[in-house]
Amino acid sequence: MAQLAHPIDTDRLRLRRFEFDDLEDLAQIQGREDVNRYLYSEPRDRAATLEVLRGRLERPEEPGEDNVVSVAVLERDGDRLVGDFMLRWLANEHRQGEIGGSLHPDVHGRGYATEIYHELLALAFNHYDLHRVVGRCDARNVASIRSLAKAGLRQEAFLEENEFVKGEWTSEVIMAVRQREWRAARAKPTP
CB–CB of 2/68 below 8 Å? Predict the structure, then answer.
């Protein structure tokens, strides 16, 4: 496990480690049916969210074999928790990571997910020296697929009806970017 060492500020957002005071806002996100629609999880009540939050707060500081950096996302102008994101990887020779997360529906459509993914990719490639990062999405979750694409990931696979989730067969899109692709894209001047 690992923790985000320092907050990361963008123009509009602050990404930081979770704090106990995030419980109410996190419960508002994790308790929603629309947030959980394309996830493996079901909506959580406050008590279940508290257990999830405690697990995040108890993670060691330093990376180990199986790592998840949980990231609380706040709007800078309101200092309200609006997102729950993560970077996950195994400390092995493959150096493969995964990014993902959820936003409160009140802030959908503002480009926040893409902004967050940009920062998580920078963390993955610059700090943890990962070789490749993926984002996995239910194929019906067009907004998440679009956000990952805007952050620089490309569709690598479409797995048709590969999982039985919440009583139905679902398809999965796997988006990916390698470190060298990400670095090359960032080196290009923007028009």
Answer: yes
The residue assigned the tokens 């990404």 is: 15
Q: Rounded distance, CA 16 to CA 7, Å? A: 4
Domain residue spans of the chain: 8-187
d(CA 72, CA 40): 20
* Per-position pLDDT tens, the chain of length 191: 567 889 999 999 999 999 999 999 999 999 999 999 999 899 999 999 999 999 999 877 766 677 899 999 999 987 789 999 999 998 788 999 999 999 999 999 999 999 999 999 999 999 999 999 999 999 999 999 999 999 999 999 999 999 999 999 999 999 999 999 999 998 877 66
Q: What is the CATH number of domain 8-187?
A: 3.40.630.30
C-alpha separations of 1 from 61, 86, 155, 165 in Å: 7, 12, 28, 27
Cα angle, residue 152 at apex, residues 147 and 157 outer, rounded to 5°: 80
Do the Cβ atoms of 65 and 90 come closer than 8 Å? yes
Q: Which two tokens stand for residue 68?
A: 């998840």
